[in-house]
Design brief:
Layout lengths: L1 H11 L7 E14 L7 E6 L2 E7 L5 E9 L11 E10 L5 E14 L5 E7 L12 E2 L12 E7 L6 H4 L2 E10 L2 E9 L10 E4 L2 E2 L7 E4 L1 E8 L6 E7 L4 E7 L6 E5 L5 E4 L2 E2 L7 E2 L3 E9 L2 E9 L4 E5 L11
Parallel strand pairs: 1-3, 7-8, 11-17, 18-24
Antiparallel strand pairs: 1-6, 2-10, 3-9, 4-7, 4-10, 5-6, 5-9, 11-14, 12-13, 12-15, 15-16, 18-21, 19-20, 19-22, 22-23
Length: 325
Amino acid sequence: MKAVLLLAIFLLFPGFMLHAEYFRTVVDGSIVISPERMSGDAVSIGINGAVLINLGDTRFLRGVELEITAPQNWLQYRGALVMTMFNHIEPTIASGITDFYGRQIAFEGLPSRLRIIYHIPIRSAHGLRTTTSVTVPSAVVQPSSFPMLFRLMSVEKGLPAAFEQLRFSVVARPILSDEGAVRLIPRFPPQLRNRPFTVLINDNVISNISEEILLKEGEHHLVILSEDYRNESRRFIVERARVIDLIIELQDPTPIIIFEGPQNTTIFLNNTQITDIREPIMVEPGTHEVRFQIGDYTVIRTLNIQRGKTYRVALDVDITIHEEE
């Protein structure tokens, strides 16, 4: 009957306990949530015990999972415990018996199950949902309001000593968003440093490339546009909860010609002999004449060179064999 009455009060007044208050509890331990510890950390708490939960890196978090594992004989005491959660607490570091001041954000009877899971959202667009096995409190706990305190509290009197000796395992884990981040690292050619350029990712202009850019996991498209460097387009992959360094090699937009030809080929560019055809040649945009010469065999071509382009000019010498009857 007590459990039914308690549930009725919660349903009629779901927000009546959501206020700041003083309270005393036993802090049995603390946990720091981090994407690097996906398996989570565990603290054993007793009746009227609590655990402090704090956040490390929050960039890729959308919530915190609390998994409470109850002892087998907990099922004998249905309705005897409630769980409460507090944020904006003071002091923020504590152990043992501690007097706190904080804002209560959740208050409900502890379900009569041996495995109880709460998903606590820490951002508005969290996408977390209550199911038959998971409970999502209605309040979003902003990262700035941590540490949060999870507490078990007895609501019945006169229970046996065995009840007072119950211990519950509380495991706290990060709930990751489907995001990663990219850090852009530009590298400039020595002769053209710190000229302006525009970065687009997925057709969106990046206004500040010095900051990490949060992106959905998966493939993305990067474009570099500039009047002082070569334009660039490439694709890259973002992994969940990981930061990747994306190096942008900004290149001189002066056109380049790369020559290839058989051994003993003499190559002329605008009537000037190329002394080392293994080295790329930088030229001005416009019309240029190329002449390949092997003995008495000569091939002449005209090139229309454009800014920011690389041209590979090759002479192929082939032998054609025709078989006749």
